[in-house]
Amino acid sequence: MSTDLLLLFPGVTEARFFPYLSLPTLTGYLRARGHAVVQRDLNIALLERLSVAPAGSTASASGRSQVTPALQAFVADHGEEIRRTAFGREASRFPWNVAAKLAWTHALRAMDGSTLTRRLRRLRDVVDHAFVPVEPSDLADQVHTELVGEAMAEARPRVVGLSVAYFSQLVPALRIARFVREHHPGTTVVLGGAQITMRAGELARDPRVLELVDALVEGAGEPALDALLSGATTVPGALTRAGSAPAAPHHLRDNPTPDFDGLPVTRYLTEEIQLPVVGTVGCYWGRCVFCSYGNRTLEVGYQQLRPEQLADVCESGLRSTGARFIVFVDENTNLRLVLGAARRLAERGRRVEWASRNRLERDLAEPAFCRALAEAGCRMMSVGYETNVQRLLDLMDKGVDASLYQRIIDNLHEVGINLRFSVMGGLFDETPQEARQSREFLIRNADKIGIDVAQMMIVEPTSRLSADPEGHGLVVDADEQQLVANESFSYLGGRVGVRHGFASGEGWDERTAQLAELVDRVLPEKNDDRHPRFLKAPPVRPGGVTALRLHPWVVRGEQGRLVDLRQSLVLRPSDDWGYDEATHVLSAATERGRVVLDRLLHAGLGEA
Fold this sequence. Notes:
By secondary structure, this protein is an alpha/beta fold. The protein has 20 helices and 26 strands. Helix 1 crosses helix 10 (221-229) and helix 2 (42-50) crosses helix 6 (139-155). The N and C termini lie far apart (60 Å).
Protein backbone atom coordinates (compact mmCIF):
# COMPACT_ATOMS: atom_id res chain seq x y z
CA MET A 1 0.00 0.00 0.00
CA SER A 2 1.42 3.38 -0.98
CA THR A 3 1.78 6.44 1.23
CA ASP A 4 0.95 10.02 0.35
CA LEU A 5 4.13 11.47 1.81
CA LEU A 6 7.49 10.26 3.08
CA LEU A 7 9.14 12.91 5.27
CA LEU A 8 12.89 12.54 5.71
CA PHE A 9 15.39 14.30 7.95
CA PRO A 10 18.70 13.69 6.13
CA GLY A 11 22.09 13.14 7.65
CA VAL A 12 24.47 14.57 8.60
CA THR A 13 23.98 16.86 11.61
CA GLU A 14 24.67 17.14 15.31
CA ALA A 15 20.90 16.90 16.01
CA ARG A 16 21.20 13.63 17.93
CA PHE A 17 19.54 14.38 21.28
CA PHE A 18 15.85 14.39 20.26
CA PRO A 19 13.80 14.47 17.04
CA TYR A 20 14.17 17.62 14.97
CA LEU A 21 10.73 19.13 15.38
CA SER A 22 9.94 19.89 11.74
CA LEU A 23 9.01 16.28 10.97
CA PRO A 24 6.55 15.61 13.85
CA THR A 25 5.02 19.08 13.37
CA LEU A 26 4.36 18.51 9.66
CA THR A 27 3.26 14.93 10.30
CA GLY A 28 0.70 15.98 12.92
CA TYR A 29 -0.68 18.72 10.68
CA LEU A 30 -0.95 16.59 7.54
CA ARG A 31 -2.33 13.47 9.25
CA ALA A 32 -5.03 15.64 10.79
CA ARG A 33 -6.01 16.59 7.21
CA GLY A 34 -6.33 12.99 6.15
CA HIS A 35 -2.99 12.47 4.46
CA ALA A 36 -1.03 9.25 4.99
CA VAL A 37 2.45 10.25 6.19
CA VAL A 38 5.56 8.26 7.09
CA GLN A 39 8.45 10.06 8.81
CA ARG A 40 12.05 8.90 9.19
CA ASP A 41 15.08 10.47 10.87
CA LEU A 42 17.95 9.28 8.68
CA ASN A 43 20.48 11.21 10.74
CA ILE A 44 20.03 9.25 13.98
CA ALA A 45 19.63 5.98 12.04
CA LEU A 46 22.91 6.65 10.22
CA LEU A 47 24.71 7.42 13.48
CA GLU A 48 23.50 4.22 15.10
CA ARG A 49 24.53 2.04 12.20
CA LEU A 50 27.93 3.69 11.88
CA SER A 51 28.53 3.40 15.63
CA VAL A 52 29.38 -0.25 14.96
CA ALA A 53 30.97 0.30 11.54
CA PRO A 54 33.80 -2.16 10.83
CA ALA A 55 37.38 -1.12 10.25
CA GLY A 56 38.14 -0.69 6.59
CA SER A 57 35.44 1.96 6.12
CA THR A 58 36.27 5.55 5.20
CA ALA A 59 37.56 6.00 8.73
CA SER A 60 40.51 3.65 8.22
CA ALA A 61 42.14 6.13 5.86
CA SER A 62 41.64 9.06 8.19
CA GLY A 63 43.47 7.99 11.34
CA ARG A 64 45.62 10.97 12.16
CA SER A 65 46.76 9.54 15.49
CA GLN A 66 46.70 6.39 17.53
CA VAL A 67 43.14 7.07 18.62
CA THR A 68 41.37 5.98 15.43
CA PRO A 69 42.90 2.49 15.05
CA ALA A 70 42.60 1.86 18.79
CA LEU A 71 38.93 2.89 18.74
CA GLN A 72 38.23 0.73 15.69
CA ALA A 73 39.79 -2.29 17.35
CA PHE A 74 37.84 -1.64 20.55
CA VAL A 75 34.53 -1.28 18.68
CA ALA A 76 35.24 -4.49 16.78
CA ASP A 77 35.27 -6.29 20.14
CA HIS A 78 32.68 -4.31 22.10
CA GLY A 79 30.63 -2.37 19.53
CA GLU A 80 27.30 -4.07 20.10
CA GLU A 81 27.51 -3.60 23.85
CA ILE A 82 28.37 0.07 23.33
CA ARG A 83 25.52 0.55 20.83
CA ARG A 84 22.92 -1.10 23.08
CA THR A 85 24.00 1.08 26.00
CA ALA A 86 24.26 4.34 24.04
CA PHE A 87 21.12 4.08 21.92
CA GLY A 88 19.06 1.59 23.93
CA ARG A 89 20.16 2.61 27.45
CA GLU A 90 20.75 -1.03 28.37
CA ALA A 91 22.81 -1.59 31.50
CA SER A 92 26.39 -2.66 30.81
CA ARG A 93 29.90 -2.18 32.15
CA PHE A 94 30.00 1.09 30.20
CA PRO A 95 28.35 4.06 31.92
CA TRP A 96 25.85 5.65 29.56
CA ASN A 97 27.86 8.83 29.02
CA VAL A 98 30.94 6.80 28.09
CA ALA A 99 29.05 4.54 25.69
CA ALA A 100 27.41 7.56 24.05
CA LYS A 101 30.77 9.30 23.60
CA LEU A 102 32.38 6.19 22.12
CA ALA A 103 29.46 5.56 19.77
CA TRP A 104 29.37 9.18 18.60
CA THR A 105 33.14 9.40 18.14
CA HIS A 106 33.31 6.14 16.18
CA ALA A 107 30.39 7.19 13.94
CA LEU A 108 32.16 10.49 13.21
CA ARG A 109 35.38 8.68 12.32
CA ALA A 110 33.40 6.40 9.99
CA MET A 111 32.21 9.52 8.15
CA ASP A 112 35.67 11.05 7.72
CA GLY A 113 36.35 11.52 4.03
CA SER A 114 32.80 10.64 3.00
CA THR A 115 31.02 12.45 0.18
CA LEU A 116 28.41 13.32 2.82
CA THR A 117 30.86 15.32 4.92
CA ARG A 118 33.14 17.06 2.40
CA ARG A 119 33.97 20.65 3.34
CA LEU A 120 32.76 22.57 0.31
CA ARG A 121 33.43 26.24 -0.36
CA ARG A 122 30.88 27.03 -3.10
CA LEU A 123 27.20 26.24 -3.51
CA ARG A 124 27.83 24.92 -7.01
CA ASP A 125 30.26 22.40 -5.48
CA VAL A 126 27.42 21.28 -3.21
CA VAL A 127 25.25 20.63 -6.26
CA ASP A 128 28.15 18.85 -7.99
CA HIS A 129 28.29 16.40 -5.12
CA ALA A 130 24.69 15.37 -5.69
CA PHE A 131 25.95 13.53 -8.77
CA VAL A 132 29.10 11.88 -7.38
CA PRO A 133 28.68 8.07 -7.66
CA VAL A 134 28.58 6.08 -4.42
CA GLU A 135 32.15 4.91 -3.87
CA PRO A 136 32.77 1.35 -2.62
CA SER A 137 35.01 2.69 0.18
CA ASP A 138 32.46 5.27 1.36
CA LEU A 139 30.56 3.31 3.99
CA ALA A 140 28.70 6.37 5.34
CA ASP A 141 27.29 7.23 1.91
CA GLN A 142 26.40 3.59 1.30
CA VAL A 143 24.53 3.29 4.60
CA HIS A 144 22.72 6.61 4.06
CA THR A 145 21.63 5.41 0.59
CA GLU A 146 20.50 2.07 2.04
CA LEU A 147 18.37 3.88 4.62
CA VAL A 148 16.71 5.92 1.86
CA GLY A 149 16.04 2.77 -0.16
CA GLU A 150 14.53 1.01 2.85
CA ALA A 151 12.25 3.98 3.62
CA MET A 152 11.14 4.24 -0.01
CA ALA A 153 10.40 0.51 -0.22
CA GLU A 154 8.40 0.63 3.01
CA ALA A 155 6.41 3.81 2.31
CA ARG A 156 6.08 3.74 -1.50
CA PRO A 157 5.24 7.47 -1.39
CA ARG A 158 3.74 9.76 -4.00
CA VAL A 159 5.79 12.63 -2.55
CA VAL A 160 9.12 12.75 -0.71
CA GLY A 161 9.69 15.77 1.53
CA LEU A 162 13.18 16.59 2.81
CA SER A 163 13.64 18.89 5.81
CA VAL A 164 17.00 20.64 5.39
CA ALA A 165 17.71 22.48 8.61
CA TYR A 166 21.54 22.63 8.46
CA PHE A 167 23.97 23.43 5.66
CA SER A 168 25.65 20.06 6.23
CA GLN A 169 22.42 18.37 5.09
CA LEU A 170 22.39 19.97 1.63
CA VAL A 171 24.67 17.43 -0.04
CA PRO A 172 22.89 14.43 1.57
CA ALA A 173 19.48 15.91 0.67
CA LEU A 174 20.41 16.44 -2.97
CA ARG A 175 21.88 12.94 -3.12
CA ILE A 176 18.57 11.61 -1.82
CA ALA A 177 16.76 13.60 -4.52
CA ARG A 178 19.01 12.09 -7.19
CA PHE A 179 18.41 8.58 -5.80
CA VAL A 180 14.66 9.09 -5.94
CA ARG A 181 14.86 10.47 -9.50
CA GLU A 182 16.86 7.44 -10.66
CA HIS A 183 15.01 4.67 -8.83
CA HIS A 184 11.49 6.12 -8.39
CA PRO A 185 11.12 8.53 -11.33
CA GLY A 186 7.40 9.15 -10.83
CA THR A 187 7.83 10.45 -7.27
CA THR A 188 7.60 14.18 -6.50
CA VAL A 189 10.54 15.57 -4.49
CA VAL A 190 10.18 18.65 -2.27
CA LEU A 191 12.84 20.42 -0.20
CA GLY A 192 12.05 22.72 2.71
CA GLY A 193 13.52 23.88 6.00
CA ALA A 194 15.72 26.73 7.20
CA GLN A 195 18.44 26.26 4.58
CA ILE A 196 15.91 26.33 1.75
CA THR A 197 14.28 29.47 3.17
CA MET A 198 17.71 31.13 3.06
CA ARG A 199 19.09 29.69 -0.17
CA ALA A 200 16.21 28.70 -2.47
CA GLY A 201 16.84 31.49 -4.95
CA GLU A 202 20.55 30.80 -5.18
CA LEU A 203 20.00 27.04 -5.48
CA ALA A 204 17.40 27.52 -8.22
CA ARG A 205 19.87 29.49 -10.31
CA ASP A 206 21.69 26.21 -10.89
CA PRO A 207 19.41 24.42 -13.41
CA ARG A 208 20.51 21.02 -12.13
CA VAL A 209 18.69 21.58 -8.82
CA LEU A 210 15.23 21.84 -10.36
CA GLU A 211 16.02 18.77 -12.43
CA LEU A 212 16.36 16.84 -9.17
CA VAL A 213 13.74 18.69 -7.11
CA ASP A 214 10.16 19.59 -8.03
CA ALA A 215 9.72 22.34 -5.43
CA LEU A 216 11.84 24.40 -3.04
CA VAL A 217 9.52 25.52 -0.24
CA GLU A 218 10.58 28.91 1.11
CA GLY A 219 7.46 29.52 3.21
CA ALA A 220 5.55 27.46 5.78
CA GLY A 221 5.68 23.76 4.96
CA GLU A 222 2.24 22.91 6.34
CA PRO A 223 0.04 24.66 3.72
CA ALA A 224 2.53 23.95 0.93
CA LEU A 225 2.54 20.18 1.46
CA ASP A 226 -1.21 20.09 2.14
CA ALA A 227 -1.87 21.81 -1.21
CA LEU A 228 0.54 19.54 -3.05
CA LEU A 229 -0.93 16.36 -1.57
CA SER A 230 -4.45 17.61 -2.27
CA GLY A 231 -3.70 17.94 -5.99
CA ALA A 232 -3.26 21.71 -6.28
CA THR A 233 -1.44 22.85 -9.40
CA THR A 234 0.30 25.67 -7.49
CA VAL A 235 2.29 25.09 -4.30
CA PRO A 236 2.06 28.15 -2.02
CA GLY A 237 5.39 29.54 -0.83
CA ALA A 238 7.35 27.31 -3.22
CA LEU A 239 9.80 27.89 -6.03
CA THR A 240 9.36 25.50 -8.99
CA ARG A 241 10.31 25.31 -12.66
CA ALA A 242 7.22 27.42 -13.35
CA GLY A 243 8.41 30.15 -11.00
CA SER A 244 7.51 31.11 -7.44
CA ALA A 245 4.11 31.31 -5.77
CA PRO A 246 3.14 33.52 -2.82
CA ALA A 247 3.05 31.85 0.57
CA ALA A 248 -0.27 30.91 2.13
CA PRO A 249 -1.14 32.42 5.53
CA HIS A 250 -0.44 30.00 8.36
CA HIS A 251 -0.23 30.38 12.13
CA LEU A 252 1.39 28.14 14.71
CA ARG A 253 -1.93 28.02 16.56
CA ASP A 254 -3.46 26.22 13.56
CA ASN A 255 -1.24 23.19 14.16
CA PRO A 256 -2.41 20.18 16.14
CA THR A 257 0.10 18.72 18.59
CA PRO A 258 3.20 17.22 16.94
CA ASP A 259 2.95 13.54 16.05
CA PHE A 260 6.10 11.51 16.87
CA ASP A 261 4.79 8.17 15.58
CA GLY A 262 7.44 6.65 13.31
CA LEU A 263 10.41 8.37 14.98
CA PRO A 264 12.75 6.40 17.31
CA VAL A 265 12.11 8.64 20.32
CA THR A 266 13.80 6.18 22.69
CA ARG A 267 17.01 5.86 20.63
CA TYR A 268 18.41 9.39 20.62
CA LEU A 269 21.75 10.00 22.34
CA THR A 270 20.50 11.23 25.69
CA GLU A 271 20.44 9.36 28.96
CA GLU A 272 16.77 10.27 29.40
CA ILE A 273 14.19 10.74 26.66
CA GLN A 274 13.84 14.45 25.92
CA LEU A 275 10.78 16.11 24.39
CA PRO A 276 11.40 19.03 22.00
CA VAL A 277 8.73 21.74 22.09
CA VAL A 278 8.26 25.14 20.46
CA GLY A 279 5.86 27.79 21.65
CA THR A 280 6.81 30.41 19.08
CA VAL A 281 7.70 30.94 15.44
CA GLY A 282 10.28 33.63 14.85
CA CYS A 283 11.87 35.86 17.46
CA TYR A 284 9.99 38.59 19.33
CA TRP A 285 13.13 40.76 19.12
CA GLY A 286 14.30 39.72 15.68
CA ARG A 287 16.79 42.54 15.15
CA CYS A 288 20.21 41.02 15.92
CA VAL A 289 21.97 41.76 12.66
CA PHE A 290 23.73 38.37 12.31
CA CYS A 291 20.60 36.21 12.83
CA SER A 292 18.92 35.29 9.55
CA TYR A 293 16.15 33.41 11.39
CA GLY A 294 15.29 36.30 13.68
CA ASN A 295 15.58 38.87 10.90
CA ARG A 296 13.00 36.94 8.85
CA THR A 297 10.52 37.68 11.63
CA LEU A 298 10.72 41.36 10.72
CA GLU A 299 9.33 40.39 7.32
CA VAL A 300 6.80 37.64 8.03
CA GLY A 301 5.80 38.40 11.63
CA TYR A 302 6.09 36.71 15.01
CA GLN A 303 3.76 33.98 16.29
CA GLN A 304 3.27 32.32 19.65
CA LEU A 305 0.91 29.95 21.37
CA ARG A 306 -1.16 30.84 24.40
CA PRO A 307 0.01 29.31 27.71
CA GLU A 308 -2.91 26.87 27.75
CA GLN A 309 -2.13 25.69 24.21
CA LEU A 310 1.54 25.30 25.01
CA ALA A 311 0.64 23.22 28.07
CA ASP A 312 -1.51 21.01 25.81
CA VAL A 313 1.42 20.50 23.41
CA CYS A 314 3.70 19.57 26.30
CA GLU A 315 1.23 17.19 27.88
CA SER A 316 0.50 15.42 24.59
CA GLY A 317 4.20 15.03 23.81
CA LEU A 318 5.06 13.76 27.29
CA ARG A 319 2.29 11.19 27.04
CA SER A 320 3.21 9.94 23.55
CA THR A 321 6.99 9.78 24.02
CA GLY A 322 7.36 8.83 27.66
CA ALA A 323 9.71 11.78 28.17
CA ARG A 324 10.10 13.47 31.53
CA PHE A 325 12.27 16.36 30.42
CA ILE A 326 11.27 19.12 27.99
CA VAL A 327 13.63 21.14 25.82
CA PHE A 328 12.08 24.34 24.50
CA VAL A 329 13.84 24.70 21.16
CA ASP A 330 12.44 28.09 20.14
CA GLU A 331 15.09 30.31 18.60
CA ASN A 332 14.34 32.68 21.47
CA THR A 333 12.11 31.20 24.16
CA ASN A 334 9.52 33.51 25.66
CA LEU A 335 10.22 32.70 29.30
CA ARG A 336 7.00 34.21 30.63
CA LEU A 337 5.00 32.10 28.16
CA VAL A 338 6.82 28.94 29.26
CA LEU A 339 6.40 29.86 32.93
CA GLY A 340 2.65 30.15 32.39
CA ALA A 341 2.52 26.79 30.59
CA ALA A 342 4.61 25.06 33.29
CA ARG A 343 2.26 26.33 35.98
CA ARG A 344 -0.73 25.00 34.07
CA LEU A 345 0.96 21.62 33.74
CA ALA A 346 1.57 21.59 37.48
CA GLU A 347 -2.12 22.31 38.06
CA ARG A 348 -2.87 19.20 35.98
CA GLY A 349 -0.53 17.12 38.13
CA ARG A 350 2.44 17.17 35.74
CA ARG A 351 5.57 18.67 37.22
CA VAL A 352 8.42 18.44 34.73
CA GLU A 353 11.92 19.76 34.40
CA TRP A 354 12.88 21.72 31.32
CA ALA A 355 15.55 23.67 29.47
CA SER A 356 15.28 26.74 27.26
CA ARG A 357 17.17 28.80 24.69
CA ASN A 358 16.79 32.51 25.24
CA ARG A 359 18.47 35.90 25.55
CA LEU A 360 20.01 37.51 28.62
CA GLU A 361 16.81 39.47 29.13
CA ARG A 362 16.22 42.22 31.67
CA ASP A 363 13.64 40.01 33.44
CA LEU A 364 16.46 37.68 34.52
CA ALA A 365 18.02 40.50 36.54
CA GLU A 366 15.07 40.10 38.95
CA PRO A 367 15.81 37.39 41.59
CA ALA A 368 12.11 36.69 42.08
CA PHE A 369 11.62 35.87 38.39
CA CYS A 370 14.61 33.51 38.38
CA ARG A 371 13.26 31.77 41.50
CA ALA A 372 9.89 31.39 39.80
CA LEU A 373 11.54 29.75 36.77
CA ALA A 374 13.47 27.33 38.98
CA GLU A 375 10.36 26.46 40.99
CA ALA A 376 8.51 25.82 37.71
CA GLY A 377 11.14 23.27 36.66
CA CYS A 378 13.78 25.22 34.71
CA ARG A 379 17.09 23.40 35.08
CA MET A 380 19.14 24.66 32.16
CA MET A 381 19.27 27.83 30.06
CA SER A 382 21.28 28.19 26.84
CA VAL A 383 22.03 31.76 25.77
CA GLY A 384 24.11 33.51 23.16
CA TYR A 385 27.07 35.46 24.50
CA GLU A 386 28.86 37.73 22.07
CA THR A 387 30.50 40.25 24.39
CA ASN A 388 29.88 42.31 27.52
CA VAL A 389 30.91 45.49 25.70
CA GLN A 390 27.82 47.64 25.25
CA ARG A 391 29.19 49.43 22.17
CA LEU A 392 29.40 46.15 20.28
CA LEU A 393 26.03 44.94 21.55
CA ASP A 394 24.46 48.14 20.27
CA LEU A 395 26.22 47.79 16.91
CA MET A 396 24.68 44.34 16.47
CA ASP A 397 21.30 45.68 17.67
CA LYS A 398 21.16 43.04 20.38
CA GLY A 399 18.76 44.97 22.58
CA VAL A 400 20.25 43.86 25.91
CA ASP A 401 22.02 45.68 28.72
CA ALA A 402 25.53 44.40 29.46
CA SER A 403 25.49 46.08 32.88
CA LEU A 404 22.92 43.46 33.94
CA TYR A 405 24.93 40.43 32.86
CA GLN A 406 26.69 39.85 36.18
CA ARG A 407 23.45 40.15 38.13
CA ILE A 408 21.76 37.68 35.76
CA ILE A 409 24.58 35.15 36.09
CA ASP A 410 24.52 35.44 39.88
CA ASN A 411 20.74 35.10 40.02
CA LEU A 412 20.65 31.95 37.89
CA HIS A 413 23.56 30.42 39.79
CA GLU A 414 21.85 31.16 43.10
CA VAL A 415 18.62 29.35 42.15
CA GLY A 416 20.41 26.37 40.55
CA ILE A 417 19.68 26.97 36.88
CA ASN A 418 22.61 25.76 34.81
CA LEU A 419 23.60 28.60 32.48
CA ARG A 420 25.28 27.59 29.21
CA PHE A 421 26.82 30.10 26.81
CA SER A 422 27.22 29.89 23.05
CA VAL A 423 30.18 32.21 22.61
CA MET A 424 30.60 34.24 19.42
CA GLY A 425 33.86 35.73 18.17
CA GLY A 426 34.95 37.79 15.18
CA LEU A 427 32.81 40.78 16.11
CA PHE A 428 32.88 43.73 13.72
CA ASP A 429 35.65 46.18 14.71
CA GLU A 430 36.21 44.73 18.20
CA THR A 431 39.45 46.07 19.66
CA PRO A 432 42.02 43.95 21.53
CA GLN A 433 41.06 45.77 24.73
CA GLU A 434 37.36 44.96 24.20
CA ALA A 435 38.20 41.33 23.47
CA ARG A 436 40.19 41.12 26.72
CA GLN A 437 37.36 42.70 28.68
CA SER A 438 34.92 40.13 27.35
CA ARG A 439 37.27 37.20 27.91
CA GLU A 440 38.10 38.27 31.46
CA PHE A 441 34.39 38.51 32.24
CA LEU A 442 34.00 34.86 31.24
CA ILE A 443 37.08 33.83 33.20
CA ARG A 444 35.74 35.55 36.35
CA ASN A 445 32.46 33.67 35.98
CA ALA A 446 33.87 30.29 34.91
CA ASP A 447 32.56 28.59 38.06
CA LYS A 448 29.00 29.76 37.32
CA ILE A 449 28.68 28.93 33.61
CA GLY A 450 29.10 26.24 30.98
CA ILE A 451 30.04 26.78 27.35
CA ASP A 452 28.14 24.79 24.74
CA VAL A 453 29.93 26.02 21.65
CA ALA A 454 32.22 28.76 20.35
CA GLN A 455 31.67 30.13 16.87
CA MET A 456 32.76 32.96 14.65
CA MET A 457 30.19 35.47 13.44
CA ILE A 458 28.95 34.42 9.98
CA VAL A 459 27.42 36.63 7.28
CA GLU A 460 24.45 34.40 6.51
CA PRO A 461 22.21 35.10 3.51
CA THR A 462 18.97 37.01 4.27
CA SER A 463 20.42 38.45 7.51
CA ARG A 464 20.57 42.20 8.10
CA LEU A 465 24.35 41.82 8.27
CA SER A 466 24.47 40.45 4.71
CA ALA A 467 22.70 43.61 3.49
CA ASP A 468 25.31 45.95 5.02
CA PRO A 469 28.54 44.20 6.04
CA GLU A 470 30.66 47.29 5.44
CA GLY A 471 28.51 49.31 7.85
CA HIS A 472 29.48 46.83 10.55
CA GLY A 473 33.23 46.79 9.98
CA LEU A 474 33.33 43.72 7.73
CA VAL A 475 34.78 43.35 4.25
CA VAL A 476 33.07 40.74 2.09
CA ASP A 477 35.34 38.64 -0.12
CA ALA A 478 35.45 39.96 -3.69
CA ASP A 479 34.43 36.48 -4.83
CA GLU A 480 31.04 36.44 -3.14
CA GLN A 481 30.50 32.78 -4.04
CA GLN A 482 33.29 31.73 -1.68
CA LEU A 483 31.81 30.33 1.53
CA VAL A 484 33.17 30.18 5.05
CA ALA A 485 32.08 28.18 8.08
CA ASN A 486 33.10 27.50 11.67
CA GLU A 487 35.13 24.42 10.84
CA SER A 488 37.54 25.03 13.73
CA PHE A 489 34.74 25.06 16.31
CA SER A 490 31.48 23.47 15.08
CA TYR A 491 30.63 20.01 13.77
CA LEU A 492 30.83 20.16 9.95
CA GLY A 493 31.24 23.92 10.16
CA GLY A 494 27.89 24.90 11.66
CA ARG A 495 26.52 28.07 10.08
CA VAL A 496 27.78 28.92 6.60
CA GLY A 497 27.95 32.32 4.91
CA VAL A 498 29.93 34.42 2.48
CA ARG A 499 33.64 34.70 3.30
CA HIS A 500 34.63 38.01 4.85
CA GLY A 501 37.50 39.89 6.45
CA PHE A 502 37.63 42.89 8.75
CA ALA A 503 37.97 46.58 7.99
CA SER A 504 40.61 46.72 10.73
CA GLY A 505 42.89 44.73 8.42
CA GLU A 506 42.72 41.45 10.36
CA GLY A 507 41.93 38.27 8.47
CA TRP A 508 39.56 35.43 9.25
CA ASP A 509 42.36 33.19 10.49
CA GLU A 510 43.68 35.82 12.89
CA ARG A 511 40.27 36.39 14.46
CA THR A 512 39.71 32.63 14.63
CA ALA A 513 42.96 32.29 16.58
CA GLN A 514 41.72 34.92 19.05
CA LEU A 515 38.53 32.93 19.64
CA ALA A 516 40.57 29.74 20.09
CA GLU A 517 42.63 31.54 22.74
CA LEU A 518 39.43 32.44 24.57
CA VAL A 519 38.28 28.81 24.52
CA ASP A 520 41.63 27.66 25.90
CA ARG A 521 41.66 30.20 28.74
CA VAL A 522 38.07 29.86 30.00
CA LEU A 523 37.49 26.73 32.09
CA PRO A 524 33.69 26.47 32.45
CA GLU A 525 32.78 24.40 35.48
CA LYS A 526 29.14 23.69 34.57
CA ASN A 527 29.88 21.65 31.45
CA ASP A 528 29.05 17.96 31.55
CA ASP A 529 31.83 15.38 31.13
CA ARG A 530 34.53 18.00 30.68
CA HIS A 531 37.69 17.13 28.78
CA PRO A 532 40.82 17.30 30.99
CA ARG A 533 42.00 20.40 29.13
CA PHE A 534 39.02 22.23 30.68
CA LEU A 535 39.70 21.06 34.22
CA LYS A 536 41.60 23.10 36.73
CA ALA A 537 44.78 21.39 37.85
CA PRO A 538 44.17 19.63 41.19
CA PRO A 539 46.19 20.51 44.27
CA VAL A 540 49.11 18.13 44.67
CA ARG A 541 48.33 15.74 47.52
CA PRO A 542 51.22 14.52 49.68
CA GLY A 543 52.24 11.12 48.42
CA GLY A 544 50.01 11.27 45.36
CA VAL A 545 48.45 8.00 44.12
CA THR A 546 50.44 4.75 44.23
CA ALA A 547 48.18 2.68 41.92
CA LEU A 548 45.44 3.45 39.40
CA ARG A 549 43.10 0.83 37.92
CA LEU A 550 42.36 2.09 34.43
CA HIS A 551 38.85 2.11 33.00
CA PRO A 552 38.10 -0.51 30.31
CA TRP A 553 38.03 2.18 27.62
CA VAL A 554 41.65 3.13 28.34
CA VAL A 555 43.49 0.70 26.07
CA ARG A 556 47.03 -0.18 25.04
CA GLY A 557 48.06 1.45 21.77
CA GLU A 558 51.18 1.27 19.65
CA GLN A 559 54.66 1.55 21.17
CA GLY A 560 53.31 0.91 24.67
CA ARG A 561 51.18 4.03 24.73
CA LEU A 562 47.86 4.19 26.58
CA VAL A 563 44.86 5.61 24.76
CA ASP A 564 41.81 7.01 26.55
CA LEU A 565 39.15 6.44 23.86
CA ARG A 566 36.51 8.52 25.62
CA GLN A 567 38.65 11.66 25.74
CA SER A 568 40.97 10.95 22.77
CA LEU A 569 44.06 11.19 24.99
CA VAL A 570 47.33 9.41 24.26
CA LEU A 571 49.83 8.81 27.09
CA ARG A 572 53.47 7.97 26.40
CA PRO A 573 55.18 5.34 28.56
CA SER A 574 57.17 6.71 31.48
CA ASP A 575 59.90 5.42 33.72
CA ASP A 576 57.94 6.96 36.61
CA TRP A 577 55.11 4.45 36.41
CA GLY A 578 54.60 0.90 35.27
CA TYR A 579 51.68 -0.85 33.58
CA ASP A 580 50.44 -4.36 34.44
CA GLU A 581 48.53 -5.67 31.43
CA ALA A 582 46.93 -8.52 33.38
CA THR A 583 45.34 -6.24 35.99
CA HIS A 584 45.09 -3.08 33.83
CA VAL A 585 46.72 -1.14 36.66
CA LEU A 586 49.25 1.69 36.56
CA SER A 587 51.62 1.79 39.54
CA ALA A 588 54.01 4.56 40.48
CA ALA A 589 57.64 3.88 41.28
CA THR A 590 58.64 7.45 42.12
CA GLU A 591 57.18 10.47 43.84
CA ARG A 592 56.84 12.19 40.48
CA GLY A 593 55.01 9.15 39.15
CA ARG A 594 52.57 9.24 42.08
CA VAL A 595 51.82 12.89 41.30
CA VAL A 596 51.20 11.99 37.64
CA LEU A 597 48.82 9.18 38.66
CA ASP A 598 47.00 11.63 40.91
CA ARG A 599 46.44 13.89 37.92
CA LEU A 600 45.31 10.97 35.75
CA LEU A 601 42.81 10.10 38.47
CA HIS A 602 41.58 13.69 38.44
CA ALA A 603 41.29 13.50 34.62
CA GLY A 604 38.99 10.47 34.91
CA LEU A 605 41.19 7.73 33.48
CA GLY A 606 40.64 5.27 36.28
CA GLU A 607 40.00 4.57 39.94
CA ALA A 608 42.50 4.55 42.80
